[in-house]
Specification:
Chain lengths: 294, 376
């Protein structure tokens, strides 16, 4: 009885994965092998289940990898891919630098204060994401709040809005909780007696942190970095609202394929490539995590 | 941002309309038209309707209106071609309509349900003929041009004595360099931008020659370093607030920016200019998707907008010209007599329409446009 129940519990995550990941992934994969036509929906071939096996065969025969070949012929896609990884990597680095001290500080507070501080990290989520990004436009624009404040102390106006700096600010701001929370979870769980033992053995507070706390917190840092990095690499809204036109990211490329070119297969192919290349590090990371835990 | 708030405002207005007592509706409805009831889902351009008109429509017909907005033909076409959008009425521009017809995305109109079609201006309908032969699928809503919107004082300070009447102002790197510090916006609309760039180069704005597009890309690439942003709707507020000084934009949008600046009393003076080299004139058209849930209500709305006093009010709000000859006399004289909104016959000669591109050319144009946007 108990065994079957836990077996059922194990199926649930797989079911989740199948319904919300594998199935949509297959649909997008199928789309990426189609070609565009002027119709509703704007791609072909269509799979008609009513036609049975012969219908399925003609459907398969209609698929081709032509779209993927096109991705390799134009440097735009590679440039956009590398630029997305670079921006997401930079933002993830900044998030670590800013998020770590915050998480560490919260974990070292008395328990009651901790709850309030964790709440404070989550609180901005109660406002719409879009409103918060729009608020940054008001802050960063040429005649905005930031330049007004700088003007008061006699510093010249800075132009940040519509640059890559603005995109990085937006990304770091929006994803900070996703970095702080996993880090805090790890740091909070840490056994304080380990630090005491290190200090008993003559470690200074700094070296105790560096040689005990920091290595123990690495899984949290890795989890936070991955949690942020992957969605940031495919981010569309923040670069679109805060970035200039020269901020080339895959989200924009997918938008152009989908909307401007009305080319669903190309948009799907770009999305598949992004996903496939991001899934590899996740799998590697999971394996690493499993090793640490065992 | 303004579009967002406007949408919220419209939503609020509709909620109010829905709450108004039902008996007043019967009183206001014309005797001939029976109540259609039900719901009408409209998908139209942002900042493009007087919310009061939607309230009035609901009052007269009992049809509840849900009104959503977009700011590019690209978004609209992608959604409609997906099918099952739930919209009863969508408003594409003329050069996209042949693709909708070819894809079977829109349905022929039932003209018996559209009294007032005879009031549409013959010259506008002649412009429309290549896109919708026999006017089977579409009824014009508003028309406008692409031109230069600018902050009069900021530009005069940087370009003293220069008349803003040529595309050279926005395409010549030398003049652009002087305007860079106060902000230049270009539309993020590939087909529109290439049409005016080709026109500026003295080439056919509807060219099918790849070399022409290369030349236009070279022109745009030289201007690119001085452009603060490519965007199709932000410039309205940015001009009105004095955040930028020049924008390539749509006529009515720039005139709306002008009106907003006057309203805000912020001392920003905005003007619009159709360059002497000529420009694109476009028409936005009411069409009904093939799978519209309530085509009867959609016809009722088009018939409502065909009434001269209604479409005149719409023009007063959008600052765009409408295609209804009987309405011109009812439009606010400030708009009616402004050649930027209602082009003079002399100006009309310099205006051209953009034709429909096939998939291969569209892809090539958008690839080159991405190069302009990103430098890659």
């Amino acid at each position: 009885m108990k065994r079957s129940r836990s077996g059922l519990a194990a199926i649930l995550p797989f079911l989740w994965l199948a319904v919300f990941f594998a199935f949509p992934f297959l649909l997008v994969g199928k789309l990426s092998l189609s070609h565009t036509v002027l119709a509703i929906p704007p791609y072909a071939p269509q799979l008609h289940l009513s036609q049975g096996l012969p219908g399925f065969r003609t459907f398969l025969a209609g698929l081709s990898g032509e779209t993927y070949a096109r991705l390799t012929q134009d440097r735009l896609y590679l440039d956009a891919y590398l630029s997305s990884l670079r921006i997401a990597g930079l933002a993830a680095g900044l998030l670590l630098l800013i998020g770590y001290p915050i998480a560490y500080g919260i974990a070292r507070c008395p328990p009651k204060a901790r709850q309030a501080l964790v709440m404070a990290v989550i609180l901005p989520f109660w406002t719409s994401f879009l409103i918060r990004i729009y608020a940054w436009i008001a802050i960063l624009k040429p005649a905005g709040v930031l330049n007004a404040a700088l003007g008061l102390v006699g510093l010249g106006p800075v132009e940040i809005l519509n640059t890559e700096t603005a995109v990085l600010i937006g990304l770091v701001y929006a994803y900070l909780p996703f970095m702080v929370l996993p880090l805090y979870a790890v740091l909070d769980r840490e056994d304080e007696s380990l630090i005491e033992a290190a200090q008993d053995l003559g470690a200074t507070p700094l070296s105790a942190f560096w040689r005990v706390t920091f290595p123990l917190s690495l899984p949290g840092a890795a989890a936070g970095a991955l949690l942020c990095f992957i969605p940031m690499a495919g981010e569309f809204v923040i670069p679109d609202l805060l970035g200039g036109s020269e901020t080339l990211m895959l989200g924009r490329v997918i938008w152009t394929e989908f909307f401007a070119n009305r080319d669903w297969p190309a948009a799907s192919a770009v999305a598949i490539v992004l996903l496939a290349t991001l899934v590899v590090p996740i799998v590697l990371f999971e394996r690493e995590q499993a090793k640490v835990l065992s | 941002m303004r579009g967002l708030f406007k949408a919220l405002g419209i939503a609020a207005a509709l909620a109010l309309a829905a709450c108004s007592p039902k008996k007043t509706e019967t009183a206001a409805a014309p005797a001939a038209a029976p109540k259609a009831g039900g719901e009408l889902h409209i998908y139209n351009w942002s900042d493009y309707i007087d919310p009061a008109l939607l309230t009035q429509f609901t009052k007269e017909t009992g049809i509840k209106v849900t009104y959503d907005t977009f700011d590019s033909n690209e978004v609209l076409e992608t959604k409609v071609l997906q099918g099952n959008t739930g919209y009863d009425l969508v408003v594409p521009s003329n050069h996209n309509v042949p693709r909708y017809i070819a894809a079977g995305a829109i349905q022929p109109l039932d003209k018996s349900q559209l009294p007032g079609l005879d009031k549409l201006a013959p010259d506008v309908m002649a412009h429309m003929a290549p896109f919708d032969p026999g006017a089977k699928y579409a009824v014009p809503y508003m028309q406008g041009t692409i031109g230069i919107g600018y902050n009069i004082d900021a530009v005069a300070k940087r370009l003293p004595g220069v008349k803003i009447d040529s595309w050279a102002v926005v395409f010549d790197p030398k003049t652009l360099a002087k305007l860079k510090d106060c902000g230049v916006y270009f539309l993020d609309a590939s087909e529109d931008m290439y049409a005016v760039a080709l026109n500026d180069l003295g080439k056919d704005p509807n060219s099918h020659v790849a070399a022409d597009y290369d030349a236009a890309t070279a022109l745009l690439m030289k201007a690119r370093p001085y452009v603060r942003k490519f965007h199709s709707s932000e410039y309205i507020d940015a001009l009105a607030n004095g955040d930028i000084c020049v924008a390539i934009g749509y006529s009515g949008d720039v005139l709306q920016a002008k009106a907003r600046a006057v309203e805000a009393k912020n001392k920003v003076r905005i003007a619009y200019s159709i360059p002497k080299e000529g420009s694109q004139v476009w028409f936005d058209l009411f069409t009904i998707p093939k799978d519209a849930p309530n085509p009867v209500a959609a016809h009722r709305f088009i018939a409502f907008m065909l009434r001269p006093e209604i479409i005149a009010k719409a023009s007063n709000f959008t600052q765009y010209a409408n295609a209804n000859s009987a309405a011109t006399a009812l439009v606010d004289p400030a708009i009616r007599d402004d050649p930027n909104a209602y082009p003079t016959p002399e100006l009309n000669k310099r205006l051209f329409v953009t034709t429909t591109k096939d998939q291969a050319l569209l892809r090539e144009v958008n690839r080159q446009w991405t190069k302009v946007l990103t430098g890659h």
